[in-house]
Amino acid sequence: MSDENRSEDRSRAHVFVSGRVQGVFYRANTRDAARDRDVDGWVRNLDDGRVEAVFEGPRDAVEEMVEWCHTGSPSAVVDDVDAEYGEPTGERGFTIRR
């Protein structure tokens, strides 16, 4: 039962960020922001110029990360953030995928 309760406290967001978000340290800043909030997951650049990320962790911290994506790194210009929420799948740690 405790595992079930813990999963209810955790959330997952799958995020796509568009704008000038590549070549501006967006991924590194995302990793640092996620680690500061104890959020697990990953971030990567997509061939179409967007950044894709997955955040898993406490519901409030995941919401903070989605909000953070609207600004991102200091040099980024974010046009749009699309987030889909779902059940956590057990991400551990936060990495930059290539």
UniProtKB/TrEMBL annotation:
PROSITE patterns: ACYLPHOSPHATASE_2, ACYLPHOSPHATASE_3. The active site is at R27, N45. The keyword Hydrolase applies. One of its GO terms (molecular function) is acylphosphatase activity. This is acylphosphatase. Residues 12-98 form the Acylphosphatase-like domain. Keywords: Hydrolase. Belongs to the acylphosphatase family. It catalyses: an acyl phosphate + H2O = a carboxylate + phosphate + H(+). Pfam families: Acylphosphatase. The keyword Hydrolase applies. Its EC number is 3.6.1.7.
